[in-house]
Specification:
The complex is a heterodimer of chains A (114) and B (117). Chain A has 114 residues and is mainly β. Helix content of chain B is 0%, strand content 56%. The chains are: A mainly beta (114), B mainly beta (117). At the A-B interface, strand 6 and strand 11 of A face strand 5, strand 9 and strand 10 of B.
């Protein structure tokens, strides 16, 4: 079975500052990795995903994430955040070959202020 | 991108009644849909996997007789919370699986807020 750890429950940051949201995972087999964003009272929107190939993945809204197999991490980054990036961010993993069952982390609340 | 809708977006019901939530894939066919439950300020917990034309697969600890899932067509799955109680109040989110050449991706609906009085 796999697990996902998001150590930071909340990350406060000023507008236009860079941000990194941390995600570590544990699995005995190869996995696909995902970052989703959830705005208040809404479902989840896919930000980006890592399936294979280049370890640096670019997603929507200027976000990117880097897969580090040796450290079993998939941290999400944005060089300059905007107020509209305030939301809950979830990291998730799916073991290859398990019909896409996702295991989510506990989420990180990104709070962007002026 | 793939669009998934849910109806209703919110519902309030009395204890003991049943509530049906619909999940539709609007512009694609989904042989597999997933149902999740999310408590306030917590992550999503997978409840069950819904497969078109067959019985749903429930996760450990989820009562299949309480949370009835029907996936009658390639674009519609329903979750019925039977004899709802206040502890069933939660945010229910569905997702639909899109099969791609390299992998599968889940697209999520906007969620349904259930409040049981």
């Amino acid at each position: 079975a796999q697990s996902v750890t998001q150590l930071d429950s909340q990350v406060p940051v000023f507008e236009e500052a860079p941000v990194e949201l941390r995600c570590n995972y544990s699995s005995s087999v190869s996995v696909y990795l995902f970052w989703y964003v959830q705005y208040p009272n809404q479902g989840l929107q896919l930000l980006l995903k890592y399936l294979s190939g280049s370890t640096l993945v670019k997603g929507i809204n200027g976000f990117e994430a880097e897969f580090n197999k040796s450290q079993t991490s998939f941290h999400l980054r944005k060089p300059s955040v905007h107020i509209s990036d305030t939301a809950e961010y979830f990291c998730a993993v799916s073991e290859i070959g398990t019909a896409s069952k996702l295991t989510f982390g506990t989420g990180t609340r990104l709070q962007v202020t002026l | 991108g793939a669009v998934v809708s849910q109806h209703p977006s919110w519902v309030i019901c009395k204890s003991g009644t049943s509530v049906k939530i619909e999940c539709r894939s609007l512009d694609f066919q989904a042989t597999t849909m997933f149902w999740y439950r999310q408590f306030p300020k917590q992550s999503l917990m997978l409840m069950a996997t819904s497969n078109e034309g067959s019985k749903a697969t429930y996760e450990q600890g989820v009562e299949k007789d309480k949370f009835l899932i029907n996936h009658a067509s390639l674009t519609l799955s329903t979750l019925t919370v039977t004899s709802a109680h206040p502890e069933d109040s939660s945010f229910y989110i569905c997702s639909a699986r899109v099969r791609l050449a390299v992998s599968d991706t889940q697209y999520f609906g906007p969620g349904t807020r259930l409040t049981v009085l």
